[in-house]
Design brief:
By secondary structure, the chain is of the alpha/beta class. It has 11 helices and 12 strands. Helix 5 links the parallel strand 4 and strand 5.
Length: about 325
């Protein structure tokens, strides 16, 4: 994996170097142009973020280019999108990085061109960024670890007798997803009554999660708690449990509070989901971009709202 990251970094440096000087990042016609680049449009979270970003940009007279690769794993395509944003003289780039290291050369290139970079929802490894001499204006989003911790604490509180835990991991190499995994895992791992019986990736995909969960249930029929780090995998786990025919009550938690999640919480097949309000993140990221363009100093982390949604508060969800 380290070799893959190294090769990707070298490719990114070579591609970006070939572009040459992108010129000024300030639009001569007075129009503010922002490139908003995310990982994919494969689930409801990103669709909601796109809608929120475009509505907010339109209301504020901003020309917004919202784009993404077809798959969250297509890091090279996302690097190319950052390159294209520089060539087209975007005034700022909002980025949800598909890899916590591979996008660093692209960020450095934006720095050299004088184009502010704002991270949203996903972070870049700060030590690696510093090593390459790069910087970002701010990270707009939730505290991923603290948000996942809410679900872990709830699971521990609901199971005083302890239990067997399954963790459905996300795409490797993305810091935010690792933080979500750790935030939940640390709560159950600290309690000797809990045992993690399986921890496997399903790459943020519903169908993969369904298959992974089916296999886990065959070898571990006494599962009590499941943590999936996004809504797609949470729904895959719920479907696998339902089709398994088990009469055991398995508490499933996930992340993103999608419409499917909300319906599942009301139906009782999902215990809880962490809501992170993508539209609020989009608005915060655009505001941060405008502030950065104006030369304002921003905090390293612009914190946005997150909360655990369960049957107790599902009807109050904003």
């Amino acid at each position: 994996r380290k070799m893959r990251k190294f090769v990707t970094l070298l490719l990114a440096v070579a591609v970006l170097a070939a572009v040459g000087c992108a010129g000024s990042s300030r639009s001569e016609d007075g129009v503010t142009r922002i490139a908003y680049i995310v990982k994919a449009m494969t689930d409801e979270f990103w669709i909601d973020m796109k809608k929120g970003a475009e509505e907010y940009a339109a209301a504020n007279g901003i020309e917004l280019s919202f784009q993404s690769p077809e798959k969250e794993t297509d890091v090279e395509r996302q690097i190319q999108m950052v390159e294209n944003a520089l060539v087209s003289k975007a005034d700022a780039i909002i980025l949800s990085a598909a890899d916590s290291q591979a996008l660093i050369p692209a960020i450095v290139r934006a720095n050299e061109a004088g184009v502010p970079v704002i991270l949203v929802n996903d972070t870049i490894e700060p030590e690696a960024l510093e090593t390459y001499g790069g910087h970002v204006a701010t990270y707009v989003g939730i505290d991923q670890y603290a948000a996942a911790k809410l679900a872990g604490e709830d699971a521990v509180a609901r199971h005083p007798e302890g239990g067997n835990v399954v963790l459905l991991e996300g795409i490797a190499g993305v810091s935010a997803l690792q933080q979500r995994l750790d935030g939940f895992k640390d709560q159950v791992a600290a309690n000797p009554k809990f045992k993690i019986v399986a921890s496997q990736t399903a790459n943020n995909d519903r169908h993969q999660a369904f298959n992974v969960m089916q296999n886990i249930l065959q070898s571990n029929p006494d599962v009590d708690v499941v943590w999936a780090i996004n809504a797609e995998m949470g729904q895959g786990a719920v479907q696998a449990i339902q089709q398994s025919g088990t009469t055991r009550r398995i508490a499933v938690y996930d992340f993103d509070a999608s419409s499917d999640d909300i319906a599942a919480i009301r139906a009782g097949t999902l215990v809880g989901s962490v809501a992170q309000y993508p539209k609020l993140q989009a608005e915060g990221a655009i505001n941060a971009a405008l502030d950065a363009m104006a030369g304002k100093n921003l905090p390293a982390h612009t914190v946005t709202k997150a909360e655990l949604i369960t049957a107790a508060n599902v009807d109050t969800l904003e």
